[in-house]
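Box S2. Input/output pair 1.
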Amino acid sequence: MKATGEDSPGELLDEQIAYYRAIAPEYEEHALPFSGGAEVSEALDAFRPTGSVLELACGPGTWTPQLLRHATDVTAVDASPEMIAIASARAASNRVRFVSADLFQWRPDRRYDVVFFGFWLSHVPADRFASFWSLVADCLKPDGRVFFVDDGYRTADELIEGERSATIQRRLNDGTAYRIVKVPLQPADLERQLARIGWRISVHSTSGPFFWGAGGRSHT
């Protein structure tokens, strides 16, 4: 992959897609070994994502079966066909529709009761934060709800451009390096950011590095 240095935002996002395509077969081997996952899962069940659910950046379908426990139907979107192949095997159901698309280019063909995304928001560059949430709004019915899961965890080895940069480097098991976006989101700051752009979402920490958010658009 490219060495560190100047590149366009589009090139970095293309490299991020390439990373997730390449890591698909070993993705779960790179899971963070921390507590808090069960708390997030319990929070999602308590949220009850009922009705028609849109899952953005579904990856290998880690969350899709849990969404199906509550949803009438799920549309799951991801930029990696390799991830979708894994997800479709894991969540084999005629109530799931998988869509292979770059989320920075994709537009919905309908509106949903719930939009869910797991470990995706931190991969959205800061300068695309507002436009991403505009997309989420376009995906929701007037009283639709949002639930997301994420973390702001980055290792020292990943910080190839320093702590202030959102560009990090991750490696496959064979050592191949890719640069991706990883914004070190913090729950309280994120809640304030969302309020400034018209969302009423509560963001909750867990006992580990994970956090979850739930809510909807502000109605003023």
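Box S3. Input/output pair 2.
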Amino acid sequence: MPRGYKSKYTDKQERKADHIAGSYEERGVPETEAERRAWATVNKDDGGGKKPGGPGRGAHTGHPAARRGGERGGRASASRSAADRSASARKAAATHKRNAEHARQD
């Protein structure tokens, strides 16, 4: 269980943390570590829980952690040759076609 009180977090922040933790667990991260990372991500995005005496609606956060995927995703693809990417695309197209035909038969 992560340290600290979670009562100051909004329902949306708790749902967000649950979703992030679940994603980590699907990738094989232990439950306690997944939960720790999830709350760290929520804190990074939203600046922690609700502040005492503040209004019900917070300022826009920009979701910095959610934007990191794009900066990482291009590297693997950029290191592959055009022929490799093209072959992968052909294979995917064939799979999509095969799956569509299978779905029509059901």
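Caption for Box S3: The chain has a mean pLDDT of 82. The radius of gyration is 20 Å.
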